[in-house]
Amino acid sequence: EGRRREAVDARAQESMARAQALDDRGRAVDAMRRAESERARAEELAQFMLFDLRNGLAPIGRVDLLKGVALKSLEYYESLPEGEDLDVAKRRLVALANVSKVLVTSGDEEQARRGLEESVRLARKVVAARPEDALAARDLAVSLNQLGYIFDGRQEYERANELFDESLALRRRIVAVHPDRKDFRYDLALVLSNLAGTAIRQGRLDEGMKHAEEARAVLEPQLPQQPRNTMLRRAYLNVLENVQKVHQAKGQWPEAIAVAEVCVRIGRELVAIEPENRDAQRAFGVTLAGAARMAQGAREFEKSEKLFRESIAIRAALAKHDPNNLQWQIDHATGLIGLTLVLRATGREQESIELGEQAVRIRQGVVDREPERAEWQRLLAIGTCELARTVEGTGDLDRAAELFARGLAAHDRALAKMPSLKRENELIRTMKRGIDIQLGLASPANAVEFTQHAMSLYRQKRFAEAATQFEKALADPAHRADLRRAALYNGACAASLTGTDAWLAKALVWIREDLALRRARIAAIDEKLAGGGLDATARGRLERERAQHEHSIVGIRERDDDFKNLRARPGFSDLFPE
User: Fold this and answer.
1) pLDDT per residue over 437-455, tens digit each?
2) b vs e for 188-210, b when ≥16 Cβ sit within 10 Å of the residue's Cβ?
3) Cα–Cα distance, 220 to 229 (Å, whole number)
C-alpha cells in the first residue's frame, strides 16, 4: 500500500511538473509574442516618425527635429540579430534608408553613411534570394543612389560614380522589364541626374550633359500628363539646373541664361501649386540665386541684382519665420553674399560692405549655436574673406587684414575636420599675405607673392602700381608660363586699365603671350583626350580645364571689361585671326 501511494505521488508530481513546464512555456510564448508585438509597434512608430512625420516636417524645413529619433533608430536596427527572414530584412533595409535621409538632412552624413551601407548589404541579400523581384531590386537601387549622394557630397567622386553606375544598371533593367511603370522611369531619371551632377563637378561636361539630356527625355513626356506632380517637376528642374551648369562652365552664357529662365518659371509654378510649402519656397530661392549667378557671369548685372534681391526676400522671410532653422539662416546669408559680389562689380562698395557685414553676423550666429559643424565654420570663413576683399578695395587695409585673420581662423577650424579644404585654406593664407605685404609686415619673397601683392593693389584700383608688381612676378619664367597663376592675364588686365600708352603696349605683349599659351594647352588637351587611356577623373579634369581656357579667350576678345582700352589698340584684332 505504501509503495502504491509513492507511485501515485510520483506520477502526480510528474504531472504537476509537466503542467508547470507547459505553463512556463505558455508564459514564455506569451512574453515572446508580447515582445514581438511591442517591437512591431515600436518599429511602426519609428517608421511613422521617420517617414510620415518626416514628410510632414519637410515642407516647414524642420526634418532636423527628428535627428535624435534617427540616431536611436539606427542603434536599434544595428543591434538586431541577422535572422533568415527576408521580409524582416526588407523592412530593416527600408527603415535604415529612411533613417539615413533624416540624418543627411540634419547634417550628420557619417551616421547616414553607416546606416546606408547596412541598408545596401541587406538589400543585396534580398535581391540574391529574389532575383526576379523588381521591388527588391528597386530598394537596392534606392539605397545605392542615396549612398552615392553622400560620397558625392564628400567629393569622393570615384566611389560615388561606382554606386550611381550600379544603381543605374539596376534601374535600366527594371524599366526594361516594366516599361509602362512611370514610377520606375522616374527612378531612372533621378540616378541619371545624380550622375550628371557628379560628372559636371568633376569637369566631365560632355558626359554630364549626356546624362542630363537622357534624364530630360525620360521626364518631359510625363509632365503634361501630371501637371500638379511636384516631385516630378522638381526632378525635372534639377535636371535643367545641371544643363545650365554645363553651359555656364563652357562660357555659353546665352544658352545658360535661357535654361535659367525656364528653371525660374518652373520654380514659380511649384510655389504656386503648394504656396504654404516652405521647403518649396526655399528651393525657389536657390533657383533664383542660380539664375542670378548666370546673369552675373554674362555681365548682365541689372538682371542679376533683381534676381538676387527676389531670392533674398524669400530667404529672409523663411529665416524670420523660424529662427531655429539654421539652414535657413545660412541660406539668407548666402543670398546676401551673392548680391555683394554684384554690387562690388558695379562699383557700389559701401552697399556691398553693409550687406557683407550682415551676412557675416548671420553666419557667426549659426556657428555660435553649432560650433562643431565644420561646414558652418567654412561658410563663415568664406563670407568673412569676401567681406575682407571688398574692404580691401576701399583701401582700408588694417580692417581688411583683421577680417582676413578672422576668416582664416574660422577656416582653420573647418580644416581640422575636413582635410579636403587644404587648397582653399592655402588660398586664404595667400590673400592675407598680400595684405601683410602692403602693410609692411612682410616683403614679397617670390613671384607668387609679387602676384598676390599685385592683386591686392588691383582690388584697390591702383592699376599702375599693380601692373608694376605683375611685371616683377613675370620676370620668373616658370611663373610666367603657369596658366594656373594667370599672371600674364591679370597683368594685362591691370596694364590695360591704366589707359596709358606705355602700359597698353605691355598689355598687348602679355595678352598675346597668354593667348599663345592657352591655345597650345588646348591643342595638347585635345591630343590627350583623343588618345584615350584616361580614367574618368583625369578626363573630367582635362575637359574642365579646356572649357576654362576657351572661356578666358572669349572673355579677352569680347566680354571682360578690363580689356576695353586694349580692344581699341592697333594690333588687338590680329590676336583673333579666326
Assistant:
1) 989 898 998 999 999 899 9
2) bbbbbbbbbbbbbbbbbbebbbb
3) 13
